[in-house]
Design brief:
By secondary structure, the protein is mainly α. The chain has 2 domains: about 35 residues, no CATH class; about 130 residues, Regulator of G-protein Signalling 4, domain 2 (Orthogonal Bundle). It is about 55% helix and about 5% strand. It has 9 helices and 2 strands. The chain has a two-stranded antiparallel sheet with strand order 1-2. Helix 5 packs across helix 8 and helix 7 crosses helix 8. The chain is globular, with a radius of gyration of 32 Å. It starts with 5 loop residues before the first strand and ends with a helix. This is Regulator of G protein signaling 5a.
Length: about 190
C-alpha cells in the first residue's frame, strides 16, 4: 500500500501540529482494511444475468420426422422441423410466410407496451402494408382487420393474418415440403 504523510492542524493529545506517519494512519484505519470474518455478509444478492444459449437443434429420428406428415403444427413446434421448413422455403424464395408466422409468435411474447408498439409497426410495414418489402399474400378484409387491431394493441393483434398465412402454408408449401428431397432425407437417415 502506498502511503503519504498527512499534515494535521491539531493533535488529539493537545500537542502541536505535526505529521502522521504511515504506521499511525494504517493503525487507525486498520479497522477498515480488515476482512470480515464472514465474507458472505457483504455480498449483495442480485439476479444473475443468464445468457440464453440457442437451443441445439437435434436431428429427428426417421420415426419423428415421419410424424411431421400429420400436420404443419408438428413441424412448426419442433425446432429442427421449423428450421428445415424455413430452409426449404428459402430455397424456393418464398420464406416471407414462415418469417411472418415466426415474427407473430415472437410478438405474442412481448409484455412491454412500448416494445410491442415498435414491433407491431415493423411487422405491419414489412409484411402487411401494400408494397412492403416482405408483403404476405392476404386478402383486403384481413389487412383491414389487422390495421384496425393496431389501434388497440394486444398479443392477438396479428392473429387473423397469422391464421390466414398458416392456412396458406398448410395448403401449399407444406405439401411441397413433404415431397422435397430435404424432408425425404430425414426419413431415411
Amino acid at each position: 500500500m502506498d502511503c503519504i504523510l498527512l499534515f494535521t492542524n491539531s493533535n488529539p493529545r493537545g500537542g502541536k501540529r505535526g505529521f502522521k506517519t504511515c504506521r499511525e494512519i494504517k493503525t487507525k484505519l486498520g479497522v477498515l482494511l480488515q476482512k470480515p470474518e464472514n465474507g458472505i455478509d457483504l455480498i449483495i444478492p442480485y439476479p444473475e444475468k443468464t445468457e440464453k444459449k440457442p437451443e441445439k437443434q437435434q436431428k429427428p429420428t426417421p420415426e419423428e420426422a415421419a410424424q411431421w406428415r400429420e400436420s404443419l403444427d408438428r413441424v412448426l413446434n419442433n425446432s429442427y422441423g421449423l428450421a428445415a421448413f424455413r430452409s426449404f422455403l428459402q430455397s424456393e424464395f418464398s420464406d416471407e410466410n414462415i418469417e411472418f408466422w415466426v415474427t407473430c409468435e415472437d410478438f405474442k411474447k412481448i409484455k412491454n407496451p412500448v416494445k410491442m408498439a415498435t414491433k407491431a409497426k415493423k411487422i405491419y410495414e414489412d409484411f402487411i402494408q401494400s408494397e412492403g418489402p416482405r408483403e404476405v399474400n392476404i386478402d383486403h378484409f384481413t389487412k383491414d382487420v389487422t390495421l384496425r387491431n393496431l389501434v388497440d394493441l394486444s398479443p392477438t393483434t396479428f392473429d387473423l393474418a397469422q391464421k390466414r398465412i398458416f392456412a396458406l402454408m398448410e395448403k401449399d408449401s407444406f405439401s411441397r415440403f413433404l415431397r422435397s428431397e430435404q424432408y425425404q432425407e430425414l426419413l431415411v437417415n
